[in-house]
Amino acid sequence: MRSFFQTMTSAFVALFVFFTLVLPAQAEISFEKGSLTLVTTAGQRVDFHVEWALTAEQRARGLMERESLADDAGMLFDFGETRMVTMWMANTPLSLDMVFIDETGLVVRVAEKTTPFSEAIVGSGKPVRYALEIRGGRAAEVGLTSGARLVLPLALPAAKAP
After folding, report:
1. Residue 122: helix, strand or coil by DSSP?
2. What is the pLDDT of residue 34?
3. Residue 5: which pLDDT band, with cuts at 50, 70 and 90?
4. Whole-angstrom distance between the N-terminal and C-terminal Cα of the chain?
């Protein structure tokens, strides 16, 4: 039978491992950066400086815990295939616009001004390859609606592209 001291030592070791290895590993997810251009249905070009979310870990982290986002900033999620996509706003204090884009670059849906910290599911509505998250309200400000186009090909980081 284990002594109280052995039990407490095991508990402290488990907590030490969790706080020194597990939590920092989650916090250390990094994103490579690049640029992309969308063309509105009115023909206006809109440039964004984005972080690429290419891996499952990067896509799971997304913009969680971000408290600000510049007007020309965002995150592009590349799912590596065309499929139905669902997202949510858990642990995200910012309102975001989610721009769902198919494999040809066509914007098929814009979910505007999503609710911070919400666990409500935001769906693409149609199969897509990409989702672009930008500051809430920004899509309307620049005229980004369904029918806009993402300029392809993207200059994705070669080492991490799916």
Report:
1. strand
2. 92
3. low
4. 50
Q: Tell me how far apart the alpha carbons of residues 54 and 86 are, in angstroms, rounded to a whole number.
A: 16
Across 19-153, where does the E strand assignment appear?
Answer: 33-39, 45-53, 73-83, 86-87, 96-101, 107-111, 122-123, 128-135, 149-150
Neighbouring CB atoms inside 10 A of 138's CB total 23
Nearest to 48 by CA among 60, 33, 62: 33
Contact 86, 122 (CB under 8 A): yes
Q: How many CB atoms lie within 10 A of CB 93?
A: 13
Q: CA 145, CA 111: separation in Å to the nearest integer? A: 10
CB 129 within 8 A of CB 161: no
Amino acid at 2: R
Average of pLDDT values for 95-121?
96
Cα–Cα distance between 52 and 35 in angstroms, integer? 9
Q: 150: which strand partners?
A: 38
3-state helix, strand, coil in the chain (%, to 5): 20, 35, 45
Residues 144-157 have pLDDT tens digits of 999 999 999 888 88
